[in-house]
Each structure stands twice: as structure tokens, then as C-alpha cells.
């Protein structure tokens, strides 16, 4: 996979995560008390991971042709962290 394909794959997944987070934000707005606090905490975690993922993606896009393969490993780790954060949030929200 070349850099452009990899970046498109990242962007596509981030778009999906953004849509899901938007749904959770709507649920949070409808919730009250402790439930609302739980939603807010999970969303903050997801948003933090998303920002890290976006930063990694931007670095990857601006990396030289020689460096992008090395940077891809760091981006893969950020991807894994983001995926884990979304799975935790998804699991948390399903219980509500």
C-alpha cells in the first residue's frame, strides 16, 4: 500500500469514527446526571485519541518518501489506540 492509499484508509475510518462520536454526543445531550457525565468522559477520551490520530496522519502526509514507511509504524500504533478507545466507548454506550 502506498502513502496515498494509506492516508485515504485513515481518513475513511476517521470519518466513520466521527459519525459514531456524533451519535454519542446526541445521546449525551439527552442524558442527565451521572449518565451524562459518563458519556462526556468517554467522548473526551475518544476525542483525545482522535486528535492524536489526526496529528499522526498529518505528519505522515508531509513526510519524505523515505521516511513515510517508518512513520507508518507510529501511525499504526495511534490507529490501534484509537480503535481501542472506540471499542471501549462503544461497549460502554451499549450498556446504557
Explain how this protein is built.
With about 100 residues, the chain is mainly alpha-helical. It has one domain (about 5-95). About 90% of the residues lie in helices and about 0% in strands. It has three helices and no strands. Helix 1 (about 5-30) runs antiparallel to helix 2 (about 35-60). The N and C termini lie far apart (about 40 Å). The model has no long low-confidence stretch (mean pLDDT about 85).
Major sheet, described briefly? none
Shape: elongated
Determine the mean pLDDT.
85
Proportion of helical residues:
over 70%
User: What is the distance, rounded to the nearest whole angstrom, between the alpha carbons of the first and last residues?
Assistant: 39 Å
| Strand residue percentage | under 5%
Radius of gyration: 15 Å
SS-based structural class?
mainly alpha
Query: Order of helices and strands, N to C?
Result: HHH
Count every beta strand, where a strand is a DSSP E run of 2 or more residues: 0
| Count of structural domains | 1
- Which segments are poorly predicted (pLDDT under 50) over 5 or more consecutive residues? none
- Number of helices, where a helix is a run of at least 4 consecutive DSSP H or I residues: 3
List the helices and strands and how they pair.
Layout: H1 3-30, H2 33-62, H3 68-94
Helix pairs in contact: 1-2, 1-3, 2-3
Give structural attributes.
96 residues, mainly alpha, 0% strand, elongated
Task: Sum this structure up briefly.
The protein contains 3 helices and no strands. By secondary structure, it is an all-alpha fold. The longest helix has 30 residues.
